[in-house]
């Protein structure tokens, strides 16, 4: 009988190659490998940075040197050799570009293969796209219409030149250089990233979007993102990632800082699809990211993430609910397959009165992967009437994967209300047979079940992103399901 | 339409069906009755293509085509529908989304485009009215938190949407109160035509008051041991199955 069984699916999953595994030959300028004060100074110089920025980096570097890599996460890997990494890589020959026509055709082709059509993005989705390829922005669109509202959206390297007062005022205020090993490293060597400032009372008229992509072999990527929403403003920010196939492990240690001032709202959505490594677990991106938001009075920050890629994911987008009545949300889908390992979750730090937070985490594990949710809900003594609701659901496929939940709850105020729910389920033969009997093949059935499982999170993504995310889930489970 | 000859099948090395013969023609309604453990659900699952069973001999043909070569979804594409005794839950997938996917996957298998949304909505409206299904019901997650009656009604709703050639109702009457039973039976009757066939698997005669079978078969110990018309069901209801056992012994 030609029935497609879960075993077949598993087999297919194992043999599935990374769809985006190609490599663009763009001439790059890369620094010699290794990290020292000289390299930090050279990066800063290369980018023509002011002295305060150079000093800031050096301070971070000095702290980093004294720090150790965190080892508490539920992931196992060979530590990167930090002196074997080149800390700066930029596509060569990059004069200022005014239109897409001026972009390297090979680069454009890369985008096409990724399914990222800038034209389409611009026309259909009304998205201003700031693309970061190997750390340097190559195309920025919609800058003008944003400019009319006083919105600043540009590569952070440019912002350091053009708006030094803003960058200097906010950079490192949510995530200090001393915060953790990877944040310190990022602070010392970050090459580029995005800066966004929404003035008081302005509602950003479009979704702001950045596509990141690692390109040059053996280079780490250290993105730095800073989003500042001034009082009463609103912005929705989209970040999407895909990376080409590599044999060596690539280190990705980004830092994202969000500042939501009084009555401001930031919605930050991520689709992450870095190269997960091959089916034996060789290669793949190490994704060690620090993301944190500061919420002032009545402010709201909502993190939504769809994590399908990377060999190792270590990521906890967090909210410091400093102001009274501020709101933090975290919606996450993490898919792991083959030998992928993910340790991801959030921290909700309740400082202000009447602060509220919601955590919805959906972990999907297939193959031999390990998927961990790790979250902290902390209620400080001053946080009267704080509320948290957490829900962590895990979905397992096959018998070789693992799902883990590590909730930490620290309550120092008696008025707090905390709820935590957790479920673990498995895609069962019965569910698949039921779908099959209705004419839905196993692959489609898995996509359907996974999408249903992830629905609460997908619903929080902006429309155009939700479609892409759904596609990604299907792609990563195409092979993934079996 | 359906022709089963000398079917022998086992699960975990235990022989369940022991040489079963059954022929169902288009336009006919067949009832299969029998005591627990006789193999009724096994038969339904095997026709639908469930993988757990080992078929050691015999053939199953649908319109002359050997079904045993086909995957469950291919059988579905060929018009086989099973109303499950225990329909599964799929959280987060609405009744509408599920049936839409099922219809479009079936169309795709036949080389057709997706059904236009307007047509789909119209059909959903018609069929849900037929089965007296509330519109709110359609946006709920498939079978999640459904009562027994809602689950069964949803099965028949899907049957109505998919318009199968051969529908197998596996204990569709269990868990239904009398009103729901009437609605479901009414739905099945309206969907009946010259070109399709229905197999009703049931313990009780109750459902057969509403869906009147052309043939009633008694499945006992893996074989069909007796076949009659609708009156056989009444006889079984009155006398139980023991007299059949006794008949067999003689």
SSE layout and pairing:
The complex is a heterodimer of chains A (482) and B (250).
Chain A: H1 6-15, E1 28-30, H2 37-46, H3 51-66, E2 89-91, H4 105-114, H5 118-125, E3 128-133, E4 136-140, H6 143-148, E5 152-155, H7 156-162, H8 164-170, H9 181-189, E6 192-198, E7 208-213, E8 223-229, E9 234-242, E10 250-252, E11 255-260, E12 265-273, E13 285-295, E14 300-307, E15 312-315, E16 318-321, E17 327-336, E18 341-350, E19 356-365, E20 370-379, E21 387-396, E22 402-411, E23 417-426, H10 429-437, H11 442-458, H12 463-478
Parallel strand pairs in A: 3-7, 6-8, 7-9, 8-11, 9-12, 10-13, 11-13, 12-14, 13-15, 13-16, 14-17, 15-18, 16-18, 17-19, 18-20, 19-21, 20-22, 21-23
Antiparallel strand pairs in A: 1-2, 3-4, 5-6
Helix pairs in contact in A: 2-3, 3-9, 7-8, 11-12
Chain B: E1 2-11, E2 14-24, E3 29-33, H1 40-48, E4 54-62, E5 65-66, H2 72-77, E6 80-83, E7 90-94, H3 95-109, H4 117-130, H5 135-138, E8 141-142, H6 148-162, E9 166-170, H7 178-191, E10 197-201, E11 215-220, E12 223-228, H8 230-239, H9 242-249
Parallel strand pairs in B: 3-10, 3-11, 6-9, 9-10
Antiparallel strand pairs in B: 1-2, 1-4, 4-5, 7-8, 11-12
Helix pairs in contact in B: 3-6, 6-7
Commentary on this structure:
The complex is a heterodimer of chains A (about 475) and B (about 250). Chain A is of the alpha/beta class. Chain A has one domain. Chain A has helices at about 5-15, 35-45, 50-65, 105-115, 120-125, 145-150, 155-160, 165-170, 180-190, 430-435, 440-460, 465-480; strands at about 30, 90, 130-135, 135-140, 150-155, 190-200, 210-215, 225-230, 235-240, 250, 255-260, 265-275, 285-295, 300-305, 310-315, 320, 325-335, 340-350, 355-365, 370-380, 385-395, 400-410, 415-425. In chain A, strands 5, 6, 8, 10, 11, 13, 15, 16, 18, 20 and 22 form an eleven-stranded mixed sheet that branches. In chain A, helix 2 packs antiparallel against helix 3 (about 50-65) and helix 7 packs across helix 8. Chain A is globular and about 65 Å long. Mean pLDDT of chain A is about 80; it is low at about 10-25, about 90-95, about 120-130, about 135-140 and about 210-220. With about 250 residues, chain B is α/β, with parallel strands linked by helices. Chain B has a single domain (about 1-250), classed as 3-Layer(aba) Sandwich (Rossmann fold). Chain B has nine helices and twelve strands. Chain B has helices spanning about 40-50, 70-75, 95-110, 115-130, 135-140, 150-160, 180-190, 230-240, 240-250; strands spanning about 1-10, 15-25, 30-35, 55-60, 65, 80-85, 90-95, 140, 165-170, 195-200, 215-220, 225-230. In chain B, helix 3 (about 95-110) runs parallel beside helix 6 (about 150-160) and helix 6 packs parallel to helix 7. The longest helix of chain B is centred in the middle third of the chain and has 15 residues, at about 95-110. Chain B is globular and about 60 Å long. The mean pLDDT of chain B is about 90. The interface between A and B is medium-sized, with 28 and 38 residues.
